Amino acid sequence: MYGNDGLLGEVEAAEEALRDAAGRQVSGSEGLEEYFTAVIEADQKIEPRDWMPDSYRKTLIRQIAQHAHSEIIGMQPEGNWISRAPSLKRKAILLAKVQDEAGHGLYLYAAAETLGVSRDELVQMLLEGRQKYSSIFNYPTLTWADVGAIGWLVDGAAIVNQVPLCRCSYGPYARAMIRICKEESFHQRQGYEILHTLAHGTDGQKALAQDSVNRWWYPSLAMFGPPDADSTHSAQSMAWKIKRFSNDELRQRFVDMCVQQAEVLGLTLPDPDLRWNEERQAYDYTQPDYDELKRVISGDGPCNRQRMAHRRGAHAEGAWVREAAAAYAKKRSR
Ligand code: 3HC
């Protein structure tokens, strides 16, 4: 019904490959750089103890940090609905989901720290606007149905993008992604279930669900990044096996997955040009507005200022908690 069982199968396979890689033996290569290349070519994992080119390290820090920041900022649009969820059960589920996102941020900051940068430094870079987070979290959640659309479309896009990261060449990132993808899969199902309930409710509820899908469809397509021709990092990241597929390949995979799911929901994807292309064995679709993506990435989306102001406020208000935790840790170590 939900169509992501295949993706979960890929996560299982990636987990097995990670276990095999733990006993890796790449031999016969001389020199640090040759060894690095041999490990990547053999589809094994680079670990924190290994030598790696500076640019590989920087690319990973950039991507993992951006990913971690997205998880943390991503708590805001849904957090907005915790106190207004329509039932106690829905409230408990949403609360658990938002907490999961905080956990994902934690795994990812921890993975980034293995590259020699501290979590404090990364958070500081986010607060000073020197690092990015996903464009998608700069859109507002106007109705309860948006919580469903975020689960179905945003978490759905995140899974399609992130399942291949379970095979990323950097061990700590790949391992973090296994757990994240399993949880994201559950998140996607809860969103789908919310929309399914609304779509099969009263006319008013169905209209709410449709309106929400209309607003979230194109921003979700834009999450995959600029088209391949304009992607700065894809070619190098794919050569290093950090990324396994290009932005456009993953976007296509997402569209193909959503069409069937929308049919089961009884909702329409807001694209009059969406149709099956027999030759390509894939759906033709209208591209998102990439100028809008650029504007949102550069800070001019509907909610960028609000999101960052909230994050800065939460960081300042949490200073006493960090100080107390550090004082307690110091006391215990004595
Ligand atoms: N939002 C913000 N910035 C984006 C973006 C987006 N949707 N898509 C691309 N960009 C930025 C890139 O970071 C890069 O900027 P930089 O050079 O200043 O860092 C620039 O646009 C050019 O894009 P590229 O295609 O060259 O960048 P990448 O090769 O890094 O590909 C990516 C972009 C596909 C998003 C890749 O970084 C990626 O797979 N990241 C890991 C996954 C991730 O971060 N997901 C966040 C989604 S939300 C989430 O996970 C939370 C969940 O709970 C829903």
Automatic annotation (TrEMBL):
Lineage top rank: taxon: Bacteria
SUPFAM superfamilies xref list: Ferritin-like (SSF47240)
Pfam family, one: PaaA_PaaC
Gene3D superfamilies, alphabetized: 1.20.1260.10
InterPro entries assigned to the protein according to its UniProt record, in alphabetical order: Aromatic_CoA_ox/epox, Ferritin-like, Ferritin-like_SF, PaaA, PaaA_PaaC
PANTHER family: 1,2-PHENYLACETYL-COA EPOXIDASE, SUBUNIT A, PHENYLACETIC ACID DEGRADATION PROTEIN PAA
Name of the protein: Phenylacetate-CoA oxygenase subunit PaaA
Lineage: Bacteria, Bacillati, Actinomycetota, Actinomycetes, Micromonosporales
